[in-house]
Structures are given as C-alpha cells and as structure tokens.
Structure prediction request, 254 residues.
Amino acid sequence: MARRSPFSLEGRTALVTGANTGIGQGIALALAEAGATIVAAGRSDMGETLGLIEAAGANAVPLQLDLQQPGVAAEAIAGAVAAAGPLDILVNNAGIIRRSDALEFSEADWDEVMNLNLKAAFFLSQAFAKAALAAGRGARIVNIASLLSFQGGIRVASYTASKSGLAGLTKLLACEWAAKGINVNAIAPGYIETNNTQALRADPERSTAILARIPAARWGQPSDIGGAAVFLASDAATYMHGAILPVDGGWLAR
Ligand SMILES: NC(=O)c1ccc[n+]([C@@H]2O[C@H](COP(=O)([O-])OP(=O)(O)OC[C@H]3O[C@@H](n4cnc5c(N)ncnc54)[C@H](OP(=O)(O)O)[C@@H]3O)[C@@H](O)[C@H]2O)c1
Prediction:
C-alpha cells in the first residue's frame, strides 16, 4: 500500500469562512485538492467555489452564515457538523477592512471590523474546540492574520487592532489547547489581489509604492496562500503551535 503523504488531508473535513471569493476561496480549493471535504461558509453565494472544488474532483457543501450576527458561532459549528460530519479543520478567514484617517475614524467602522475579524474568530474557535474535545478528536485552527499583525499600517486603525489581536489570540489559544491535541496557528498574507485591496490597487501612488517594496516583484494571488493552509492543517505541522506564518513575497524580510 502506498504511504500516506504527511501533507494529505484525505478523510478530513474543513470549515472555511468567507470561502466565496479571494483568499478564502483559494484556501478552500487548496484544502480540497489535498483531499479534504469543505464546508464553504459565508453570507454570499458559494456557487463559484463549489464549482471549482467539484471540477477538482473533491467535495464541498455550502453553509449560509453572517458572522456579524451575535451568537452565530455555536450555530455555525452545529450547522457544519450536520451538513458534513465532525470537523477537523477551521479556517477563520472572513474579514473586512475600513479605511479612514485615525482622527476621523468612526465607531461603526471600529465595531464592524472588530466584531468580524476578532470576536467572530474567537467564538468560532471556541465552539469548534468544544466540539472537537467532546468528540475526542485532534483538530487544527488556521487564522488569517495580516502584515498588520506585525506592522502599524496607515488609515486602518480597527483592522490593525483586529489583526494584531488575532496574532495574540492565536498564541493564547495555542498555549491553552496544544496539549489537548488542537493546533492553533495563523497565516499572515502579504498584499494579495482581492476585494480587500481593491482601493489600494486603484490608487496609483500607493500601488506603485507597495509593489516597489515586494521582493517577489508582484502582488500575491489567493492561490499563493493555499499551500501554507494545507501545511498547517496537515500532519506535517503536528508540532507547530502559535506560529504566525508570513506568506508575503518577502515583504517582512525587507
Ligand atoms: N488581500 C490581502 O492583501 C490580505 C492581506 C492580509 C490578510 N487578508 C485577510 O484575508 C482574509 C480574506 O480577505 P480577502 O483579501 O480574500 O478579501 P475579500 O475578497 O474581501 O474576502 C472577505 C471574505 O469575508 C467574507 N465576509 C465579510 N463579512 C462577512 C460576514 N459578516 N459574515 C461572513 N462572511 C463575511 C466576505 O464575504 P462577502 O463576499 O459576502 O462580502 C468574503 O468572503 C481577511 O481576513 C483579510 O483581512 C487579506
């Protein structure tokens, strides 16, 4: 019998939030190509992602949810388990950004970003971990952090606060759950061509300055993030806990 690759996700089930587009779609497809069944969760239609996964010969089910709704986390995990069986992997990818000078930054732009990027990620992780521990299963959580988990940025106060907070939370949960068989790690994507960076790419000055600083000399694509997610979700990363893995074309090395 052929030896199982330590990177294989055959027989595993992954819940990916914000899987309809961008980095979430790239991660969902990469996990599916590595053998996982995907629960593609979010508030928009998942048709495109389901089509890509089916075309790759893998399985996915959609899960409609709005992570801004209070109390949604437990419902989301129960819904995912009902649709696809016990979960092995949670990818906290859904996230938003609001841009404004700090002097003008509104309370609404603070709350919306913090509620999705940080609060929803925490309570989904909590509900996911409870289910994994109750079922006696090991499990993986992959949070999608940011370069602004390490740097300050400009004009994105709540985003920087949320992503710096998510890095801290990744380390805290890793410390609490590592010995219980749950690995918690994060990926810090660099500048990736998605809806999130549309405003930056439309600003010729910002976009030229950003590109000039990227050693790889190009913006990233959602598919560039998939491999790191497969690694962190797989047996190859069994001894990894609390890492924030940059996938940034070399940005932080500069
Ligand atoms: N692009 C980058 O350069 C970059 C860099 C570092 C980190 N990130 C992070 O990567 C993650 C994905 O972002 P992206 O770049 O792929 O941007 P994106 O294309 O805007 O994707 C964001 C995803 O979050 C979902 N979402 C937003 N509000 C939601 C809600 N209330 N409930 C459920 N889902 C919701 C979106 O769904 P809808 O389509 O329905 O809005 C979408 O699927 C985010 O956490 C972002 O902060 C991105």
Remarks:
- The pocket of NAP is lined by residues 17-18, 20-24, 42-44, 66-68, 93-96, 116, 144, 146, 189, 191-192, 194-197 (CB under 6 Å).
- The chain has one domain: 13-247.
